[in-house]
Amino acid sequence: MSQPTHRHAALMQQYVLPLLLAVLLIGLWQVWTVAAQVPSYLVPSPLDIARTLVSDFGLLMGALWVTVKITVLAFLSAVVLGALIAFAFVQSRWIEAAFFPYAVLLQVTPIVAIAPLIIIWVKDPTLSLVVCATLVALFPIISNTTVGLRSVHPGLAAYFQLQRASRWQVLVRLRIPSALPYFFAGLRISGGLALIGAVVAEFVAGTGGTGTGLAYQILQSGYQLNIPRLFAALLLISLTGVAVFAALAGLTRWALGGWHESELNR
What we know:
Radius of gyration: 23 Å
CATH superfamily of the largest domain: MetI-like
CATH topology of the largest domain: MetI-like fold
Structural class: mainly alpha
Strand content: under 5%
Shape: flat
Number of strands: 0
CATH class of the largest domain: Mainly Alpha
Number of domains: 2
Helix content: over 70%
Largest sheet: none
């Protein structure tokens, strides 16, 4: 198979087929709601959701901006903190043995359980939501980066040792390049978790009467039985998650596409 034909087939599989399936499902959804005369306060039709997106555009876009801002700030915080913690773990097995269980503890503790405490302790509303979302997104960065920094080819490690390379040279020239595929895999996971953490934290804050993000709009729409707006907010959250993953996947291809086999074989 020629290169252009192979690329065309890959584009079909990656973009066209999922898009066609989405169009088919939305069409079936519209036909079902109209044929069965389903009330919009139970299951709105795609057209009802589209009308709501247009009529409540300003409200929903403002809420989307708040959610995106919290997601981005939490994601960047998780990347910086997670990478620094992973570097510390790699420098000493004692440090990793002492602190890694607490990183696991943060991961397995439901954010819904500790978010109310964080919101009470941290007075600034935005900062409290960022802290909650950061805790959710932190562990994949720590875990993947730590594994990547330790996944060094033994022959290369022996060569660096033979050349009497310093610990800094080993870190910068060997460990970090070897860890990049693991690190970027952690980024793709952490990006979605940051959005989930932001939405969950907004739900908790919204139940206390504060917040303007999409989760708050979902709560308010549920109280008011404005189900089309609820679905519209859910749609925006889903599209934001897709956009975050696509952006991080593009960043991965840009960073690794020229030299690593995980992207060269795509």
